[in-house]
Amino acid sequence: MSQASVSFSVDELKDFLRVIGLARGDGELYVNQRSKFLEVLEMAKHLAIASQKITKRRSVTLLDCACGKGYLTFALNYILTHKLGRSAFFVGVDRNPQLIRKCREAQHLLGFENMEFHAAGIMGFVLEKQPDIAYCLHACDVAKDETIAKGVTSGSRFILVVPCCQREIGRKMRAHPLINMTQFPIIKERLSSLITDTMRALVLGAAGYKVEIFEFVPAKVTPKNLLLRAERIWPERADMLERYWQLRAMFNVEPKMEEYLTWLCPK
Fold first, then answer.
1. Longest distance between any two alpha carbons in the chain, whole Å
2. Domains of the chain, with CATH numbers?
3. Of 2-6, 141-145, 175-179, where does mean pLDDT reach its minimum?
4. pTM, full prediction
5. From the centroid of its chain, how far is CA 71?
6. Whose CA is closest to 136, among 126, 123, 128, 21?
7. Which of 96, 114, 147, 208 has the highest Cβ tally under 10 A?
8. To 5 degrees, how large is the angle CA 51–CA 53–CA 59?
């Protein structure tokens, strides 16, 4: 399935956008939500494409980690069930009970019965069934690590994450070969972002996932526009784990991810 087959106009989605809070009462997008709409729609396209690889003999199960107000999950539900005729079940998880309450209110207004939302931490949440796809869009800092770890430990076939702020590695970097570069705060911030996302990709590779990293929207929409898309297609790979350890040692860091996936810790 191509991305073109899941593209829609704003006019077509007016009523839906109004209910989830991206548009005014007349269905016109709020000016300050136009970029968010583009992010949501593009991410939903990639998730829809992944879902088409799951057998149609059963419903596809999707886990939205740090779901926030649920914009992405509601949009994806609309696309899969109303436009593509795909049976799907969605689970949204977020630590903020107020956001979960808003998600449930929107779910009721939209009449989406194939969804459930839970106020809980990502790693502490107990799934009743194995997800086919785990994902998050712009959840802060280590929430992406939690999403990756949850996807890996729950046996999710696909994991898609869009990083936002990558502060953890920057805080932990000490003596390393590029110390002369990271004396400048903005260089340190950008380098730590690259290191963080590279380490995430290596973790996924070590767990048996094929990983792609690419810009899913133009930088003018959001500077945080990298999408990590992973599909489990082979057994665990020792060579990718070795590369992770090498990068870890080079920058003298102990990523939070190792608390969730203890097999990452060097022996």
1. 60
2. 3-264 (3.40.50.150)
3. 2-6
4. 0.93
5. 13
6. 123
7. 147
8. 55
Q: What is the mean pLDDT of residues 90-117?
A: 95
Taking residues 233-261, report their average pLDDT. 94
262 Cβ contact partners less than 8 Å away, ≥ 6 residues apart: none
> Which residue blocks in the chain are alpha helix, DSSP H?
14-20, 34-51, 71-77, 97-110, 143-153, 167-172, 185-206, 238-251, 257-260
CB-count burial class (<10 Å; 0-12, 13-18, 19+) for 67: buried
Q: Helix (H, G, I), strand (E, B), or coil: what is residue 175?
A: coil
Q: Give the count of beta carbons closer than 10 Å to the beta carbon of residue 12.
A: 11
**Rg for the chain, CA atoms, rounded:** 19
- Cα distances (Å, whole numbers) of residue 36 to 151, 201, 209, 221: 24, 25, 28, 8
Residue 195: pLDDT over 90: yes
CA distances (Å), origin 55, targets 52, 59, 61, 155: 8, 8, 11, 16
Q: How far is CA 60 from CA 44, 63, 157, 172, in A?
A: 15, 10, 11, 38
Amino acid letter for position 33: Q
pLDDT at residue 213 greater than cutoff 80: yes
Place of tokens 């929430």: 143
Q: How many CB atoms lie within 10 A of CB 190?
A: 15
Q: Is 249 strand, coil or helix?
A: helix
CB distance 61 to 128 below 8 Å: no
Q: Can you read off the two tokens belonging to residue 223?
A: 């500077």
CA 131 to chain centre: 14
